[in-house]
């Protein structure tokens, strides 16, 4: 099967619960539709999709998770990636997702 590559710009946001917080990007609209199509038959638990992500010069493997709120997906951002690429909450970043 050919790998699908999806590019988008998204804003970094913060989710906080019980004193802990996590940084995410939301994949929505046309990009989310492309993810759904490219991941047919490849989803895992909770509808997650295994992906390779590139932001700037940093590439890593992670999963996208379905978002009921947006109808798309959320992408968790590791602290090491945020530090290496120098972005924070509210910044817009260019992202390439490979499925």
Q: Provide a count of the helices.
A: 2
Order of adjacent strands in the largest pleated sheet: 1-7-4-5-6-3-2
How does CATH name the architecture?
Answer: Beta Barrel
The shape, in one word, is globular
The level of helicity is 10-25%
Summed up, the domain count is 1
Specify the biggest β-sheet.
Answer: 7 strands, antiparallel
What is the oligomeric state here? single chain
Span of the ends, CA to CA? 10 Å
From the structure above, extract its key features:
Elongation Factor Tu (Ef-tu), domain 3; 99 residues; alpha+beta; 7 strands; 17% helix; seven-stranded antiparallel beta sheet
Give an overview of the whole structure.
The chain is an alpha+beta fold. The chain has one domain (5-98): Elongation Factor Tu (Ef-tu), domain 3, CATH 2.40.30.100. The protein is built from 2 helices and 7 strands. Strands 1-7-4-5-6-3-2 form a 7-stranded antiparallel β-sheet. Strand 5 and strand 6 (73-77) form a beta hairpin. The longest helix has 10 residues, at 29-38.
Topology record:
Layout: E1 5-11, E2 13-17, E3 20-27, H1 29-38, E4 49-55, E5 58-66, E6 73-77, H2 79-85, E7 92-98
Antiparallel strand pairs: 1-7, 2-3, 3-6, 4-5, 4-7, 5-6
In brief, what are we looking at here?
With 99 residues, this protein is α+β, with helices and mostly antiparallel strands.
